[in-house]
Amino acid sequence: MKIIVTGGAGFIGSALIRFLIRETDCEVCNLDKLTYAGNPESLKEVSDSERYRFEQLDICDTTGVVGLFNEIRPDAVMHLAAESHVDRSIDKPLEFVQTNVMGTANLLQCALAYWQVLPEERKKGFRFQHISTDEVYGSLGKEGLFEETTPYDPKSPYSASKAASDHLVRAWGHTFGLPVLLSNCSNNYGPYHFPEKLIPLVILNALDGKALPIYGKGDNIRDWLYVEDHARALWLINRKGVPGETYNIGGRNERTNLEVVQTICRILDELRPKTSGSYADQITFVADRPGHDRRYAINADKLRRELGWEPKEDFDSGIRHTVEWYLNNDWWWRPIRERKYAGERLGKGVK
Ligand code: NAD
């Protein structure tokens, strides 16, 4: 089986490709533009495989994408390429519209043209799999969970652009018959996570003796899923999911941001103690993110019931693996901190 993975040099895409090369016999072509968030170093452990290939390409580039489809002749596209950081979407919203909306539309058109002329058997087996976020559902109060049927109510330029891309994928499925699959996943964490996101930022700032910034009071709630559990879910959906269907993915690990940061501090106190005091002494409350969603929590019962998925990690085990990974892999994150992003505040608004 041949698969084009878009955004495979990013956090989740690289976890997916490492999984596909390690645990399946698929051939994988990684289509990635290599924005600031893309890092070929995340694919070091698979880059020598003859089943892996990298193509630097923008999903908005019609000629390039058509050419790649004709060359690879894939059985599936797993589409993860996106601008993904809410704070950056507050600073530069149009970049999110360009990649997440226009890029997805372009990819759909290219996939459709390729799929329409496939022989009947291959046409039936082809899948266009779109990877999305629970943020399209908006923000929850104290009670309730996001269901697959929850009405869309995105609140940030990031989640609005992802919501638009989900609608486009469903429309291409409904109108043209393209066999599409969708999933909406909660917040991921784990190894190779770009250190602009809360968990890696806090680990690395802690080790550097810098402030550990917490937006507002730190009482916003996220539902955390270990990235390798997400990668396994995506493959299961690809193989067993019903075209046209949407699957929520989440591990039922709700934590406030403050709890997440305190947990990281406790693990670091144990594994890399400071000469005096606790890493928690570095916690600093800062002005909240504009329009900050209060709570996300996802009901993944459909995925468990219909496809038999179970996450392997809970938050306690996953966060420990993650902290250990950052402690042991500074070869990966140090160049990023020195050359790409040192941890400065993002998301203050369009200048
Ligand atoms: P990421 O920012 O780490 O990686 C995105 C990748 O896409 C990068 O390698 C980047 O170079 C590439 N890319 C960006 N624009 C591109 C373009 N125009 N053409 C080709 N490649 C391009 O993102 P991530 O956290 O790995 O998220 C992957 C996907 O999963 C996204 O679609 C995101 O919306 C979704 N998602 C993320 C989370 C999360 O917690 N991170 C949760 C649910 C869903």
What does this structure look like?
With 351 residues, the protein is α/β, with parallel strands linked by helices. It has a domain at 2-193 and 223-251: NAD(P)-binding Rossmann-like Domain (Rossmann fold), CATH 3.40.50.720. Helix content is 43%, strand content 16%. It has 12 helices and 13 strands. It has helices at 11-23, 62-72, 86-91, 93-116, 120-125, 157-176, 198-207, 227-240, 257-271, 301-307, 315-328, 330-340; strands at residues 2-6, 27-32, 52-56, 76-79, 127-133, 180-185, 188-189, 212-215, 221-223, 225-226, 246-249, 254-256, 283-286. The strands form 4 sheets. Strands 3-2-1-4-5-6-11 form a 7-stranded parallel beta sheet, with helices on both faces. Strands 7-10 form a two-stranded parallel sheet. It has a two-stranded parallel ribbon with strand order 8-13. Helix 1 (11-23) links the parallel strand 1 and strand 2. It is globular and about 70 Å long. The protein binds nicotinamide-adenine-dinucleotide.
Bound molecules: nicotinamide-adenine-dinucleotide
Shape: globular
Q: Please identify which CATH superfamily of the domain at 2-193 and 223-251 we are dealing with.
A: NAD(P)-binding Rossmann-like Domain
- If you consult CATH, what is the topology of the domain at 2-193 and 223-251? Rossmann fold
| Radius of gyration over C-alpha positions, nearest whole angstrom | 20 Å
Mean pLDDT, rounded to whole units?
97
Task: State which percent range the strand residues make up.
Answer: 15-25%
Number of strands: 13
Supply the helix-strand structural class: alpha/beta
Spatial separation of the terminal alpha carbons: 46 Å
> What is the number of helical segments per DSSP (H or I, 4+ residues)?
12
Question: Would you identify the regions where 5 or more consecutive residues have pLDDT less than 50?
Answer: none
CATH architecture of the domain at 2-193 and 223-251: 3-Layer(aba) Sandwich
The strand order across the widest sheet is: 3-2-1-4-5-6-11
